[in-house]
């Protein structure tokens, strides 16, 4: 099953709604609407009570919906059966998409061998031996997550080498801590697409500080268009992936060739800390899945499409550079 989040108008302004996505039928089903119809018909609930029950069961937050328990898929199937799903459906081309998840914590791994080698080569850095010892990942800002068909903010301090990153996003469905690899996939609800935009010029200056990438990445993270539940994938290392810029294919491959498995990455992330429902863990960039590896870069107005088999297409448009921002003045050497 596929789950997404959309924005709908209400008397109080736009509200987030959880939907089941049926691309083959060209529609989405508003779960809260279907649940309210189901409650009235099945339990004879009044209008106001039906709405309260439906919104509690299917909130607009993916994180909250997953935190309600492990029965999200079964509950969704129940309320969209028959006429309730039909009456609560909307044309897929008419909806406004929100990020597929609203992650409490957003993390991004580094697992694809091809990208590890290509990134280090292009950035003029040696692959550290420590990458063979532990899975690498960063914590990114969840406050700048955007969804399908969004415009990507472009802060003017990123003056060169704007980049996309073709990644999968593993959406956590259960709360856990220090899980082991053999049980880690039980904590993954589904998979989405994740575009970890990067300003490579600024990243080149940030990395020697030794505290990771910050302003070179945390201006925008695209997640979507929706989440496909894990049971729909036969092989997590055989998902076809592609990235296009303005309709031209810039990278194509699959989800194989990893240094660390999905289970090992999730398990390592959970060590000594808590993973929460709705959290997103990026797979890291597929080999050849960044403009950096091609010696290319994005420009304002470019349309970037990430595609993965059995998930869909995550499309975003690069915005215009936001000028007039403050930037620190370089200091004199103190050593």
Describe what you observe in this structure.
- The longest helix has 13 residues, at 31-43.
- The chain has 2 domains: 2-97, SH3 type barrels; 106-322, Fumarylacetoacetase-like, C-terminal domain (Fumarylacetoacetate hydrolase, domain 2).
- The mean pLDDT is 96.
- α1 crosses α2 (47-57).
- The strands form 4 sheets. Strands 1, 2, 3, 4, 5, 6, 7, 8, 11, 13, 15 and 19 form a 12-stranded mixed beta sheet that branches. Strands 9-21-20-16-17 form a 5-stranded mixed beta sheet, with no helix packed on it. Strands 10-14 form a two-stranded antiparallel sheet.
- It has 9 helices and 21 strands.
- It has 335 residues and is an alpha+beta fold.
Radius of gyration: 21 Å
What gross morphology would you assign? globular
Count of discrete structural domains = 2
- Reported by name, the CATH topology of the largest domain is Fumarylacetoacetate hydrolase, domain 2
The CATH homology group name of the largest domain:
Fumarylacetoacetase-like, C-terminal domain
Strand percentage lies at 25-35%
C-alpha end-to-end distance:
59 Å
Tally of helical segments: 9
List low-confidence stretches. none
Category from helices, strands and their pairing:
alpha+beta
Number of strands: 21
Topology pattern, helix = H, strand = E: EEEHHHHHEEEHEEEEEEHEEHEEEHEEEE
CATH architecture of the largest domain: Alpha-Beta Complex
The average pLDDT value, as a whole number, equals 96
- Kindly state the percentage of residues in helix: 10-25%
Largest β sheet strand count, sense and barrel closure? 12 strands, mixed
CATH class of the largest domain: Alpha Beta
